[in-house]
Amino acid sequence: MSALLDSQALTLRADGRTLLNALDWRLEAGQCWAVIGRNGAGKSTLLRTLAGLRTAEGGRIQLAGRALADWPLAGRARQLGYLPQSWRDAFACQVLDALLIARHPHRQAYWDSAEDIASARAALAALDIGHLAARDIRTLSGGERQRVAVAALLTQDAPLLLLDEPAAALDIGHQAQLLALLAARCQRPGHAVMLVSHELNLTLQHASHALLLLDDGRWRALPVAELSDELLSACLGHPLLEIQRDGRRYWLPAAGP
Ligand SMILES: Nc1ncnc2c1ncn2[C@@H]1O[C@H](COP(=O)(O)OP(=O)(O)OP(=O)(O)O)[C@@H](O)[C@H]1O
Fold first, then answer.
1. How far is CA 48 from the centre of its chain?
2. Taking every annotated instance into account, which residue ranges of this chain make up the domain ABC transporter (predicted)?
């Protein structure tokens, strides 16, 4: 069976630097991948490339067994949803309408169907923001706006979600809720998630696999169970200590000099 997303010899460069060299990788249904690396390692560039928003400097990407570039836009949006790291709201828009725009790839007619509205309402409820449905998105707090963005992605209802730092603006309770929601989504048949995150511990509690971006374009792709403190320390450029508690592993930054 073909992977949901896969790459062969994928190479990314920016600003005269190789960010990723010859990535051979497969993302299967049921998996939750965490992309980990230092600032500037190339995580966002990778996600944007996998979402089809920039062209790779080398190699191939396939979405559900078909070259990414060969997908028609609406078809691709039914298959793959992407949450950018940041955005700007230029216009007034009600929260519910912002979610309904995300139903565009599924539209059969000009108007919103009962299914579109039910899907948007369900996403608002899942993110605990049903009470914000009628609010202008420009009046939301940073964390509320971030949850609306994730809710819009859920409303798009693509089986594969790529999320760039989805928990960055959230308090710890909402971070935990979001990570649990994304992990649960991977249990649905045919679904998978890939996310960039600096919230190492919460993310690695829920992710099944990690893609580590190292120096000079080197990378490691492996199950989270095979991660070690040496590997994570090398990836993040800071010594980490592994702590075990209640059968779970946590990583803490070691004290500086
Ligand atoms: N269009 C561009 N022109 C020049 N340099 C770029 C361009 N796009 C990205 N870069 C550089 O490529 C590197 C990777 O950027 P990217 O945003 O992918 O990093 P990141 O791993 O997501 O970092 P962070 O953790 O800080 O969000 C950075 O050094 C960035 O400055």
1. 10
2. 5-240
